[in-house]
Amino acid sequence: MLVEPGTPTAPPRPASAPEQAEVTPRRRRGRPNVLSREQVIDAATAIANEDGLDRLSFRALGVRLGVAPMTVHRTIGGLDDLHAELVRRTVDEFTATFVWPDEWHAVVRTFATTFRDLMLTHPLVLESHSRRGALVSTESDAVVAKVVGALRSAGLPDAEAMYAFFVVYDFVVGHTGVQVGRGSAAAGRPERHALVAEILGSHSYEERFSLGLDVLIAGIEARVR
Question: What b/e string do you get for 58-89 counting C-beta neighbours within 10 Å, with b at 16 or more?
Fold first, then answer.
């Protein structure tokens, strides 16, 4: 249960007028009593991206915002609602930057690269996806409709167009998960494997992603033909 810290009470002590003024509770400067939802979501996004969703709590938000945890709770509601809200806002803001081309190959490539950029920029989206299922936002349905529509226009049957979208989606999530999971630590570098080092020398996630996407698009094109 979340309990807002109260002010400890103590038996009154005799005091002269000047002393009485000293014990009068003072309002802490810089600690607002009223928050907006935007302030809470901004702080939650920063904590989740920097430290992970597991570290997102009312206490952590209170420390970051300079208020009591219960003040955050009253502003935003439960943590599950907060998780959904910050993912929804992050995805909506990012997908609003999509500039869609006309040709289906380019539509698929735009979706894949922009989705990857989203998860690399905001690890909370990848973490939420892996723990809580498909991403749901105001704009996500429009993105799916755009990509699937392009694949249908290219000549894929409806079911294949939908599954082809999922294949690309799964590739992006999986690739990004591997990259983010290994981070920049030397121990996680693929070139530590003897064969990788022998063939590639220096491994590049950018080249790996680009080749994988080329292979997927070529496979879709073969189905179209």
Answer: bebbbebbebbbebbbebbeebeebbebbbbb
d(CA 107, CA 220) in angstroms, rounded, equals 13
The number of C-alpha atoms within 13 Å of 83 and in the hemisphere containing its C-beta is: 19
DSSP annotation of 188:
G
Model confidence pLDDT, tens digit, residues 16-51? 444 444 343 344 555 555 788 889 888 988 888 888
- Amino acid, res. 173: V
Other Cβ atoms within 10 Å of 90 Cβ, number: 22
Query: What local confidence, expressed as pLDDT, does residue 110 receive?
Result: 95
CA 104/CA 108 separation, integer angstroms = 6
Instruction: State which of 22-26, 84-88, 175-179 shows the largest mean pLDDT.
Output: 175-179
